[in-house]
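Slide 14.
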Amino acid sequence: MPKPTKNSLITIPWQKRKKIVTKQIPRLTAIAMLLLALLISPPVCSASVVYVIEVGDMITAGTEMMISHGIDHATEIDAEAVLIELDTPGGLVTSMEGVVSSIENSQLPVVTFVPQGKRAFSAGAFVLLSGHIAAMAPGTATGAATPIEITATGATAAENKTINAYSARMRGIAENRNRSVETAEQFVTEGLSLTADEALDQGVIDLISTDRSDLFNRIDNQTVNISGRLITLHTKEVVFVEEEPSLAVSIIDILSNPQIAFVLFLIGMYGIIYGLASPGTYVPEMTGAIAMILALYGMGLFSASTFGAILIVAAIILFIAEALTPTFGALTLGGVVCLIMGALMLPQEPFLPADWVTGFRRTVFAAAILSAGIVVLGLGLVLKARVRKPTTGKEELIGKFVRAETDIGPEGGGTVKVHGEIWRASATEPVQKGEMVVIVGIDGLTLIIEKK
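Slide 15: predicted structure.
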């Protein structure tokens, strides 16, 4: 067969062409099916994510940590917005300021919402108004943010300078969000409370919604100002991802409660005192040390009065003095008064809920009474046992009643039986055999006895 030249035509036999085409049919069929699937498949759209943080009780350092971490995590996962659902009667002022600061510095839109059947009072009103979008459900309420002071007789309104300071803070929050400054200020200065409809009419919230789904459907395509940047929300269909409180948040939430910190402080003081008074077991002092560390850490999470802590320490010193040198209750009474006054002065928080204040006062009075009994009775027995003279060896015999085994005179020569042993004995006046006598002293190996 001649070799083909450059311009010659190569002819492939029919059988070979049929085999080549047959081999290509499956591959061509697969490509055609893939193209058809791409043409008829609907476009896949990923739903926007809204990160939900629920505040279901008093605002504490744990709440501040949860919201701060939640906003950071929402930013990392590129969420569309953060939703903070509020149900709070108030809380710690430092924690409230931390929450408001986290919202103000957020790079994502933060929506604050009071769900149905809930409320946002006192410190919660500050948080509600700080949201880029603030909403409430029908039948909810907000406001009542007048600062208070806790005294021995209960909670009273704070001084004018404190009220003026927080009314200015509330005005600043309202101005930043273009909300009614006058109404927001009345939350602080007059203790004003509003329903959802009233809050909407007076311009302190943006809308009323029945639930979170309705809320985000209604704010779809709204534009919010985030640190000078205008961001349009796309929330027609969103997926809600809820924040679960971590173990650290739960622990800090407990420790930052002034009532818990006060109880831990007492446990720590008593544990350390009992441990020093009765060393050897290491359990009281170890328990006391742990409780004291936790109490001091908790006190660092809220505004605590140094003078109040000093009064509590003074109360415990008075209890110990009563146990060592009984004064028929004078020192105990002074200790109870110092403990009650110090405990009530300990939390310097202007936005604590009224119910919490009532419960705290009951705890303080109960702790004062229990402290007086525990320290005076329990610690008194421990300390008296430590200072009691030893009663072992010969000293143990003094004060015992025995029977004379023989006649005993001042010159001695008689005997008595003690613990099954025969001892020589002498008496200041004659004792007849069989008479009961008491051991009053020891002279060498001779017992000195007297008639019973």
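Speaker note: The first helix runs from residue 14 to 40.
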